[in-house]
């Protein structure tokens, strides 16, 4: 630990010990060695497996932190930001993997753009076994990434671009705490907390910088929170509610273009329509009908919840 750390990897953990091992091993494989890694255990898997894994790996740059009680995903993400030992911190999902050059990529971007509140990279989609997996939604979002290398989001054009489709893969983000300040993920959300924070930062006048260079492996599988919340429609309820709120905020600032995009919710509706078609193609008539009713009914979601 003689090298001053340049970046912290905070891993909010709930369950999935085998994936956690792969995640930590991808940190250990970084070409950049001046890092710290925190495993933030939220108590979803009794037995001390995560703590034992950190002890087994026996790297002094690794630390295990057990939450005093179950915080929930959003609060555990915020704890990762608070507990980081460096100005730059990445919230690494406990079932994902870093490419060996991830730290190199984001550290270079952060150095080139010292006023950016966050920098990020491209991601490769993999399945539960770590094999490449095609995702229509992710392929579509890549088309929406702004021109330029690196690309930059700022002000009304940045908000408008992000609302057309949330192309920023949340766990690829490396946050700069000195610019982020006391702002954090907003309690109450369970799916769109990353998009809410990013859009709030853009409304506050901050800049987000990214590269198309792929340096992260994002695991999509049926047990993930995203998959479960998409099927329950919680994801779409939150997206509709957040877009409505952002339409109002943009209108109040006179950002008419961003307000129109938020009001339209075109990408959210397209994604939901794609899921309806996928369900029908697989013979899942009940789930398809439930999603279609939500799509036609707008923000009155499957559980009747709105924000």
Q: Roughly what is the average pLDDT, rounded to an integer?
A: 91
Number of domains: 2
The Rg value, from CA coordinates, equals: 19 Å
Tell the overall outline.
Answer: globular
Kindly, what is the distance between the CA atoms of the first and last residues, rounded to a whole number of angstroms?
Answer: 46 Å
**Total of DSSP H or I helical runs spanning 4+ residues:** 13
Helix content: 40-55%
The CATH homologous superfamily of the largest domain corresponds to Spore Coat Polysaccharide Biosynthesis Protein SpsA, Chain A
Which structural class is indicated by helix and strand composition? alpha/beta
Poorly predicted parts: 299-307
User: Roughly what fraction of the amino acids lie in strands?
Assistant: 15-25%
Oligomer: single chain
Largest sheet: 9 strands, mixed
CATH architecture of the largest domain: Alpha-Beta Complex
- Under the CATH scheme, which class of the largest domain? Alpha Beta
Remind me, CATH topology of the largest domain? Spore Coat Polysaccharide Biosynthesis Protein SpsA, Chain A
Number of strand segments: 9
The ordered H/E elements are: EHEHEHEEHEHEHEHHEHHHHH
Explained architecture:
It is built from 13 helices and 9 strands. By secondary structure, the chain is of the alpha/beta class. The protein folds into 2 domains: about 5-220, Spore Coat Polysaccharide Biosynthesis Protein SpsA, Chain A (Alpha-Beta Complex), CATH 3.90.550; about 230-295. Strands 1, 2, 3, 4, 5, 6, 7, 8 and 9 form a 9-stranded mixed sheet that branches. Helix 2 links the parallel strand 2 (about 35-40) and strand 3. The N and C termini lie far apart (about 45 Å). The model is unreliable at about 300-305 (pLDDT under 50).
């Amino acid at each position: 630990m003689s090298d001053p750390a340049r970046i912290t990897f905070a891993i909010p953990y709930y369950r999935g010990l085998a994936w956690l091992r792969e995640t930590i091993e991808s940190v250990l494989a970084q070409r950049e060695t001046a890092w710290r890694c925190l495993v933030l255990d939220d108590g979803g898997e009794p037995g001390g497996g995560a703590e034992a894994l950190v002890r087994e790996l026996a790297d002094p740059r690794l630390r295990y932190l057990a939450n005093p009680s179950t915080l929930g995903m959003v609060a555990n993400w915020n704890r990762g930001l608070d507990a980081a030992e460096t100005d730059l911190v990445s919230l690494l999902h406990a079932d994902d993997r870093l490419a060996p050059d991830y730290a190199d990529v984001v550290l270079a971007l952060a150095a080139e753009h010292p006023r950016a509140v966050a920098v990020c990279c491209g991601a490769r989609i993999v399945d539960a076994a770590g094999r490449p997996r095609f995702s229509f939604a992710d392929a579509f979002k890549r088309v929406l990434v702004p021109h330029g290398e690196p690309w930059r989001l700022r002000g009304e054009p940045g908000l408008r671009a992000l609302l057309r489709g949330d192309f920023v893969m949340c766990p690829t983000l490396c946050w700069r705490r000195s610019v982020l300040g006391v702002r954090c993920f907003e309690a109450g959300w369970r799916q769109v907390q990353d998009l809410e924070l990013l859009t709030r930062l853009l409304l506050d006048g901050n800049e987000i910088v990214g590269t198309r260079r792929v340096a992260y492996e994002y695991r999509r599988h049926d047990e993930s929170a995203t998959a479960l919340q998409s099927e329950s429609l919680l994801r779409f309820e939150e997206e509709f509610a957040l877009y409505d709120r952002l339409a109002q905020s943009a209108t109040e600032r006179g950002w008419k273009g961003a307000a129109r995009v938020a009001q339209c919710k075109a990408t959210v509706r397209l994604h939901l329509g794609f899921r309806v078609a996928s369900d029908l193609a697989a013979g899942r008539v009940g789930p398809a009908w439930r999603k279609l009713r939500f799509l036609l009914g707008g923000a009155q979601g499957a559980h009747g919840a709105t924000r």
